[in-house]
Amino acid sequence: MAGNAVTILVGTTKGAFVITGTEARDDWTVTGPHCNGWSISHVVGDAETGRVWAGGGGDFFGAGVWASDDNGATWTLTRLTEGDIDGWAANEPDFARSMGWTGDPLPFDKDFSQIWSLHYAHGVLYAGAKPATLLQSHDHGKTWEKVEALTNHPSAADWNPGAAGLVLHTMVTDPDDPQKLWIGISAAGVFATEDGGKTWERRNRLTNAAACEGHDHPAAPSDGEVGHCVHNMMRAPGTTDLLYQQNHHGVWRSGDGGRSWDDITGGLPSTFGFPIRVHPRDPDTIWTIPLNGDSQGRFPPDAAAAVWRSTDGGQSWQDCRKGLPQENCYFTVLRQAMAGDRQDSPGVYFGTNSGSVFASFDGGDRWQEIMAHFPTILSVEVMDHI
Question: pLDDT tens digits for 182-197?
Fold first, then answer.
């Protein structure tokens, strides 16, 4: 695979940004903020068509998905639920005109307040909402429907919110089988379907139940199951259903599509972190960014930033620090703020809540800050123009 231009899609608390790099990945330009100042939780794209989608919202605007058909140059909005703006605009004609409010009915009333995550695969655009709802669109985001079988899962009444609420934040598909989909919900755990969403199985079982002994954190493994507060999950390349997840309490690996999980946290400096990243061609190479945990501030241990890499599927770990701040570093890297490209030497990228984007083009050995001074970064994704 030859080198190609790379587009980095960034979601922030003040809109979406599009970062474009040259083929050599040594000169970067940025456009934005897009999406009229909305808080954008997640931005994804389809390099083949140039379509980009940005999901977000909140109590004021309600939930919605912005779409661009020209690599992020222009955008249109599909609102999905009501927000505070609707009540205000209904009673204030001048405000309504200034905001472009039409009063048209919205498809999901007040069912959820925010789009938290997006995923595009096999011609279907998926959206995860807060509180946990799975939506799908078969017309590139113009119209949406709920995946009711998940909404009505027998365990739904017992789902508990994490610190950010009950959010559906991760969607993973099989590249060869459009019927297979895994999702992560904080703090309800991992769910999977193998029939296109008609039925769902909850998949949080520990491979070895003894691994839960000695933990006293409410998000830790217990009763034979991994902690339900899954933070991020990714499928490894290849024909087997190898999954990795960064949990509220550890990093975990499943060789059977989530039916059982092994703890691979040993060697990391903490059990807490948000993102996980897998090499695009090597199923045993993974990266994660440990943080020091809930009560200590959720920043890098010892205030020294490091991306931790494993090249043997989590049996051992190495800290990669060159180019990252090693003193007075108090940033957080959130669950959707780590991504990668598919070049011959794949780039790894992450964004911080202090507004920086860092990149490595040699597997993590060396890092450089390629952008700074953004708003709080909520997500980072990559479009490869290959």
Answer: 999 999 999 999 999 9
CA-CA distance, 188 to 228, in Å (whole number)?
5
Instruction: Please identify which residue in the block is written with the tokens 């990714």.
Output: 234
Render pLDDT for 122-133 as a digit per residue (tens, 0 to 9): 999 999 999 999
Question: Which one, of 18, 20, 22, 23, lies nearest residue 40 by Cα?
Answer: 18
Other residues' Cβ atoms within 10 Å of the Cβ of residue 37: 12
Rg (CA), the chain: 20
Pair type for strands 28-34 and 15-21: antiparallel
Confidence grade of residue 386 (pLDDT, cut at 50, 70, 90): low
End-to-end CA distance of the chain: 8
Q: Which of 237, 243, 239 is nearest to 256 (CA)?
A: 243
**Alpha helix ranges (H) inside the chain:** 84-91, 93-99, 148-151
pTM to 2 decimal places? 0.96
